[in-house]
Amino acid sequence: MRRTGVERVRNARAAESRKAGVRTTRTALTGAVAALAVTLGACGGDAGAAKEAGSGKHGGDAAPEADPTRIPGVSDALHKRLPGKTRQVVAVYGKGKDSPSATVRLFTRKGEKWTAERSWRGHNGRRGWTRNHREGDKRSPVGVFTLTDAGGVRPAPDAKLPYTASAAFTPPSYWPKKTRHDFDHVIAVDYNRNKGTSPLDPVRPEGKEKGGSIWLHLDHGSGTSGCVSISRAGMVYLLRTLDPDEHPAVVMGDRAALAR
Fold first, then answer.
1. What is the DSSP string of 83-127?
2. Phi and psi for 6 in degrees, rounded to 5?
3. What is the pLDDT of residue 16?
4. Which tens digits make up the pLDDT trace of 208-259?
5. How far apart are CA 242 and CA 158, in angstroms?
6. The pTM is what?
7. Of the candidates 142, 46, 58, which has an alpha carbon nearest to the alpha carbon of residue 94?
8. Are residues 212 and 204 in contact, defined by beta-carbon separation less than 8 angstroms?
9. Strand 140-141 and strand 129-130: pairing?
10. Maximal CA-CA distance, the chain
């Protein structure tokens, strides 16, 4: 009987020990889950996002909505230089002051609202941008310029801007081979030129030292001598879209300059 009583005591103690172990395990698991939730929330995990969405409240650092009456990234000063009748703008956003890389976007205006239509990768002057362009500086001029005339080696029957097709646009044979088709299609930027003439017109109203023949033309994969280049598809789209009746213009420069 004594052996049976001892066994009962041992069994009771063992059972109590097992229960305590279960309670300890559950407590540990609960703590681990709580710690994991805190970690996910601190790292921007779904748990934290769901809680904020459910509360209907937002932090004070949310990005402001873009103003639809403005072309993004373009300062008041440059906006004021846009002709009042302009309803089409090619915006050229240079990557940096000394960079040849750019993004080219087409915006159209209806009423007071500007809408982004298309976007292309492109290039500008191989040495970047300048507010005081000079002949041969290999930089593109910063500013707002109208777009009134086009042309190129190849005809563009769908072009809306006045278009001059001529073999005279062919790049010199001593230029690198990759530039052979740069001027298949071009749109003249009205910088130091006479509007209403072929892009080939050599007249420089502000003098030769101020440079000229700044065009939008086909891209060859790297920086230019001062022009802005985009893909063939982009050029064809612009030729079919830019309309003299909409008074198209280009706003161009590195992002920092455009914002000033």
1. -TT--EEEEEEES-TT--EEEEEEEEEETTEEEEEEEEEEE-BTT
2. -60, -45
3. 55
4. 999 999 999 999 999 999 999 999 999 999 999 999 999 999 999 999 999 9
5. 11
6. 0.76
7. 142
8. yes
9. parallel
10. 124
3-state class (DSSP) for residue 31: helix
Smallest Cα–Cα separation from 236: which of 70, 118, 65, 123?
118
224, 125 contact by CB (below 8 A): yes
Rounded Cα distance, 17 and 10, in Å: 11
C-beta of residue 247 within 8 angstroms of C-beta of residue 88: yes
What is the sign, positive or negative, of the torsion defined by CA atoms of 161, 166, 167, 171?
negative
Q: What is the dihedral of CA 138, 142, 147, 151, to 10 degrees?
A: 10
CB distance 104 to 91 below 8 Å: yes
Cα 89 to its chain centre, rounded Å, is 15
Measuring CA to CA, which residue among 204, 179, 201, 199 is closest to residue 189?
Answer: 199
Nearest to 102 by CA among 224, 254, 257: 254
The first and second tokens of residue 247, run together, are 């008074």
What is the Cα–Cα distance from 18 to 10, expressed in whole angstroms? 12
**Cα(32)–Cα(124) distance, rounded to whole angstroms?**
56
